[in-house]
Amino acid sequence: MTMNPSSVTALLCERIVAASRSTLPPDALKAARELCLDGIAVAVAGAQLEEAPRLLAAHFADPLTGTGGGTSSSLLGLNARLGTVPAALVNGAAMHVLDFEPMWLPATHALSPALASALALGEALGSSGLEVLGAVVLGIEIQGRLRQAARGLESHELRFHPPGFVGPIGAAVACGHLLGFDARQFANAIGIAGSRCGGLFVNLGTMTKATHTAYAASLGLEAALLTRSGFTGSLALFDAGPQSYENAFFPRGLDSDALLAFGQTLRVVDPGYAVKIFPAKFSTHYAITAALALRDRIPDPSAITKVRITAADVPSSDRPHPRSGLDGKFSLQYTAALALLDGQVGLSSFTDARLHRADMQALLPKFETRLTREIPSIYTEGRYLDVAVTLQGGEVITARCERPRGSWGAAPITTAELVGKARDCFATFATKEAAETCIASCLELDRLDGVGLRALLRLASTGGHG
Whole-prediction pTM value? Predict the structure, then answer.
């Protein structure tokens, strides 16, 4: 099969090759280092606090499964090792299961598919930290360009969860960088990864949601490895045609000009990303922020008679009756109730025990939620959320959140705060000394050779315990 040199896919892959062979600018390097710190730390906490990563690790280590494929790559926070492809999957789940990884514009979860795959492959290859950083930046870049090429889809228009249909391609590009692909090889890996895309919103609130990024990481890596072995796929994934990738995932069509802007400015820098300070779906950060603004004006939570939320139409965030603490991460009602009751939302907020406590069960039935398409669901196009709390005696107090902290146009999360978040995450498993070593290594990742990268990943896997 030959490539049409003037096709969208061919032109894009030439741009990917050019970016792959270029030196990362300082601002992109800084962003990539901090993203890697956030991703690794959150993965350690996810592996410790949620059951899904442990179940996945046991599944792939089971001889009956027969897919372990060796022990070349570390499992973060689990003191175990698997082959590259299953390790990328387990680590991708661990990075995402807390819903604590950064958010991107347009919305997706771009870090875990790119980082989990690059770390698993990079450790096996003996890649340097700088090579892994480059892979992560390019893997995020293609995901951001694809989301931008979707022509401004609102949340209610999406048919598939974004990391499920852009993440495998991001991982394929990240791993193609580490493998030194040329344009044809990138096109082939992208073509294979295109047949691995999917991800249904119906699984949000379950363990399966974390596998959207997990399988994105592993299947994109697998697409790159298959390409290296001579396995063939379409060389024209992004070109127009019947029953195409565009038809499947872009209901408004694919803006090829937006896609071909790949690398002109790197998405890790412009528009950048939102570091999460609450471990929950980003839509809920609006509710949390508004509810926290009201808490000091409420004499006692028992004085609340009604809570009304008015928000953008993001269907997956309207969950008045969460089935579990994990499901609560996606619930406007539960997260706002946490803010009103506890005055904080953190790693310990999303347990079944917290969900079933009497104060939470008393407050949740008092919520009324209205999702409206009159409020844009795109973060930078006038999105907001209103909370109105009615108190005994009839007083109504209100708050609006237009930009959660750390998001685009809002007060940024500082490097010091990011390091504090990382310490909290590492503290779920690692010794203090191991945590500080991991943090320091991530913040100078571009200076680590292959030996240094492997030492970092082993320490993030063992937590200093073995």
Answer: 0.96
